[in-house]
Design goal:
By secondary structure, the chain is of the alpha/beta class. The protein contains 13 helices and 18 strands. Strands 1, 2, 3, 4, 5, 16, 17 and 18 form an eight-stranded mixed β-sheet that branches. The chain has an eight-stranded mixed β-sheet with strand order 6-7-8-9-12-13-14-15, sandwiched between helices. The radius of gyration is 23 Å and the shape is globular.
Length: 431
Amino acid sequence: MKKSAYIVIALLTGFYQSGLAQQTPAPAQSETISITGATAHIGDGTVVENCTVVFEQGKITALGANIAPQGKVIDASGKHLYPGFIAPGKSLGLIEVNAVRASNDQDEIGGIIPHIRSLIAYNAESKVVESMRPNGVLLGQATPKGGRISGTSSIVQFDAWNWEDAAVKVDDGIHLNWPNTFRRGRWWMGEPRGYQPNKQYKEQVEEVLTFLKNARVYGKGKAESVNPAFEASQGLFDGSKRLYVYAQDEKQIVDAVTALKETGITHLVLVGGYHAHRITDFLKTNNVPVLVNFTHSLPEFDDDDYDLTYKLPKMLVDAGLLVGLQNADASNFQTRNLPFYAGQVVGQGLDKEVALQLISGNTAKILGIDDNYGTLAVGKSATLFISEGDALDMRGNQLTHAFIDGRELSLETHQTELWQRYMGKYSGQLN
């Protein structure tokens, strides 16, 4: 092949790859920015009309209805201002295409592997991650999956060159899938269909508790050799890490909270909690927050209310629990619909500003990043966005500007490029 042909192929390949490349991460904030005239939804249940927000060097320096703007001014009159939404418990950036094994880093071999860190596998150039931003989902918890103890998560922001740049809170918690009290019958092996008692439940629980007890003892002495799994677990006992416990039914939840508290673990977070509404007093007594599964799903059992999943967050909020939303069973790409899951709870009677807290202020508290994210306040990160209308309604969730730590983001994604391409094609045909 002639040399000129090689050059043409190389150029075409470069153009193709550049067309599919992720948007370049935004540079650090270089000038003071003021957003004026917006209806600001603070993220703690309050609203400020005709609000001005000023931020510089990535931090909010002024916020209120009678604030003089400074620096570059963005007129948001008639628009709405929100803190960046937070997606907990998702393997965003760890898996790109489910059917392509080479792009799947969400789990590793082994049943109890708390020392496996999701952060170092996080792909900051993920197109799935990039697609979160146009709906206002700006931060997430990169979470390992699989096994009994899946590994250690980290919290990241969704505009970065690499995992080091993305990290907001490193190694924030360990994720435990509590054993199921029931399992589905394996009909292909002659077992009855439907749910059957898990005969190995006690044995599986004991395996978890034995590991945690041994890890605690390991931390109190001077071991002759390093045990990575025990080392990674020490934060559970000194309070520097949270234990995210995935449990659904009433017995699972009670057994998990009771047994884990006895091992000396201080910060527990219940993930899922399908039947948490039955034991709200128990959860309040033990100060256990809940990350509820996403609201768009069918009831699990025949005797459940048909709309249980839709109204469960409101039931837990009304009971006085600290509640966030986590779309555990949905595919990663569906995480971009997180604000609409919160909007669904508004349809069940929850106040709109309280529903907003489920994906902002409350989630920040549950993850332990509320000192800097989750709400709009002086001194906190300027991680926020402007929407044409109600961000919890897909008709109003039309972003005009978005910022992470004061850096103005591009809202272009692979999806928006395709939309523009084909809208141009079909609008031309219609004309």
